[in-house]
Amino acid sequence: MPPLQSVLKYSVFGVLLLCLVLAWFSVSQRSEDALVVYCAHDLIFAEKILNEFEEETGIKGVVVGDSEATKSLGLVQRLIREKKHPKCDVFWNNQLLGTMDLAAEGVLLPYQATEAKRIPDQFKDPNGLWTGFAGRLRVWIFNTDLTDASSDGFLKRYEESDLSRMAIAMPLYGTTLSHFSVLWETMGAKNLKEWFKDLKARRCHIVPGNSTVKNLVSEQVCDFGWTDTDDFFVGLDAGSPVAMVPIRVNGKTLCLPNTVAMIKGTKRKVQAAQLIEFLLSEQVEIALAKSGSRQIPLGPVDESQLPDEVVALLEFTQEALDITQYADARKECLEWMQSEQLR
After folding, report:
1. What are all long-range contacts of 188-193, with beta carbons under 8 Å and residues at least 24 apart?
2. Could you say which of 253, 282, 307 is where a domain stops?
3. Which of 237, 251, 295, 334 is the right S-S partner for 134, CB 3.0 to 4.6 Å?
4. Same domain, 149 and 289
5. pTM of the entire predicted model
């Protein structure tokens, strides 16, 4: 039987290939006047927002999503490949560092959104290439039936030699790649490589995505793991006995915003600008906070309209690392991870 890592590698690449083929077909079949939105945020939550935009403005759109396992990375790489002949008008990413990579590659068109004024400087590009909104936190998720509900309980378990009851998502993609990029910089490349090698030697589960981590913990296959607040709340809403504690690096939390950006070469600048303004509005941040994903508003909002769980998370966004400082680390870390997967 092939090693688990090899099976995961080829299954993930197969999913990515199928996703790209289907996405290309959907875009090629669109009407010429439709606004094309590449969206890495979970479509189960994003489509409602985009449908509301269409209802309010009359602007029709075509949405191209990504798979859970390759979330955001597949669309970032596709946008780079399409740079000379863009098919996308607006990119709604579910994390920041990949969007910064697109800015460095010259894929994005500056747009100084009026609604961007409500977003803290830490979460937006000064030249208007991208703006963040509706964040989520990296968290420890643990099963309260199996693990002490205090933070000391599962952290002590983490320090033990056997991690066969812990799970993390494959760090090639999405927010786990962002998380590892921070560790690459703060720990140093050599130390991170040794730490990750030790993690695998201690039998930590390396799985396709954050939702899989949530499932393993919810179903008591694992006691604890790393995921994001949105996946945690999906588990909680399903009645799973789970709790969470924010992950900290050097005493700081990891808040990973959604981002929105206009694609250079778009022929629909006016419509693209309207969507960007809409996504950055208080209305949308509140809507995403009320959704099952419980996204955390980054700009000022009427807190009385927020779920109590989201209000409780607001303070953690104030303690977050400036994730924009880790763009170079992401490139280096990704190159290393890709070389590890090819062995």
Report:
1. 189/332, 189/333, 189/336, 192/333, 193/336
2. 253
3. 295
4. no
5. 0.86
**One-letter amino acid for residue 288 of the chain:** L
Answer yes or no: do 154 and 197 share one domain: yes
Domain range for residue 289?
Answer: 4-135+256-315
Structure tokens at 279: 């996504």
pLDDT by 10s per residue, the chain, length 343: 444 444 444 444 454 445 544 444 444 444 467 999 999 998 989 999 999 999 999 999 999 987 655 556 789 999 999 999 999 999 999 989 999 999 999 999 999 999 999 999 999 999 999 999 999 999 999 999 998 766 666 677 777 778 999 999 999 888 999 999 999 999 999 999 999 999 999 999 999 999 999 999 999 999 999 999 999 999 999 999 999 999 999 999 999 999 999 999 999 999 999 999 999 999 999 999 999 999 999 999 999 999 999 999 999 999 999 999 999 999 999 999 888 764 4
Q: Are residues 85 and 29 in the same domain?
A: yes
Q: What does the alpha-carbon distance between residue 201 and residue 40 come to, in Å, rounded to a whole number?
A: 32
Would 151 be classed as within a structural domain?
A: yes
> Is the same domain home to 20 and 129?
yes
Provide the 8-state DSSP code for 42. Answer: -
